[in-house]
Amino acid sequence: HGTMIEALAFSTADAAKEAVAVSRSALTSNTWNGELLLFTDVGAAPSRGKSVARVETRTASAAVGWVGPRTVISGDDEGVVSVWEWRGDGTLERVAGLIEHDDMVSSLDCNGAESVLSSSHDGSVKIWDVSALTPDTTPKSGGTFGAHATAVHTARFQREGDRTVPNTRMAASGDMSGRVCLWDARKMYSAAAAIPLNAHGAAAAVEWLTSKTVAVGSADGTLHMYDIRRLDAPLVAAEQIGAGGIRSLASRGGTDVLVGTDGGVVLQCALSESGKFEVGNAGAVHTDSVRVVGWRPSEPATVV
């Protein structure tokens, strides 16, 4: 039976205490069953026996995240966003299920311990307040962004480097058609601006480099960077660097971008003084598509 790592997320609540959530799936008969595991040492992942907490889920979760030092979220193939509390006895207790999407949850992003963005293949992005959830509540989203006409692959709160901008309401999302939308959560009925990248295939990954610049990784392997104040042309374009297409992105320091490709290669792109991406191999080679990339918080030079 095949096992696949679907998603991975580091907790950034306490830099001195490393914690990582891993979602993985396994094919049993004709069904993909899921599992959520927590580790306090990324080197131990994804071994079940070395996890500090784990729970089996009915379906696979393509997205995970942290909204606090002991609160984890996951988004599954049936469109449910689950909120989990990591208990002191090593268990994960499901606190709430956020049920509004009609198709699989493709990405999750958190802004502090309150706001969560969820994108879905149903074509929507939703924002949730998870600050006061209990098992007895029936959560409702704070709004739905529905300007995408096709499946949404990713949605990200506005960031400055590797941190979300405090209290930001700006977000960027990319869909299967290649359209990238920039929007304000206070005005979710329409996009503030859009980048049509249809010629490059699906916008599989979107990542903020700074609060004013956003990178887009496309299905044809091209990496673009845009200034959100001027979207008529990209600031930088690295053509077809990702073999088989770009699947995931991570940024650091406003100039460095990690690129995970469908060909299994992880690339590191650095923005040079001449305004071009210098592309190098980050040293990681996988046998399947790289669904998530990042830098290890406790060892900033280590790529995960």
What does this structure look like?
The protein is about 0% helix and about 55% strand. It is built from no helices and 28 strands. It has about 300 residues and is mainly beta. The chain has strands spanning about 5-10, 20-30, 30-40, 55, 60-70, 70-75, 80-85, 90-100, 105-110, 115-120, 125-130, 145, 150-155, 160, 165, 170-175, 180-185, 195, 205-210, 215-220, 225, 235-240, 245-250, 255-260, 265-270, 275-285, 295, 300-304. A four-stranded antiparallel beta sheet has the order 1-2-3-4, with no helix packed on it. The protein has a four-stranded antiparallel beta sheet with strand order 5-6-7-8, with no helix packed on it.
Summing up helix and strand content along with how strands pair, one would put the structural category as: mainly beta
User: Terminal Cα separation, in Å?
Assistant: 25 Å
The helix count comes to: 0
What's the β-strand tally?
Answer: 28
Specify the overall morphology. globular
Our Rg estimate from Cα atoms comes to: 18 Å
Instruction: List the secondary-structure elements in sequence, H or E.
Output: EEEEEEEEEEEEEEEEEEEEEEEEEEEE
How would you state the average pLDDT, rounded?
A: 88
Main beta-sheet strand count, sense and barrel state? 4 strands, antiparallel
Low-confidence stretches: none
The residue fraction in helices comes out at under 10%
Output the strand order for the largest sheet. 1-2-3-4
How much of the residues is beta strand, in percent?
over 45%
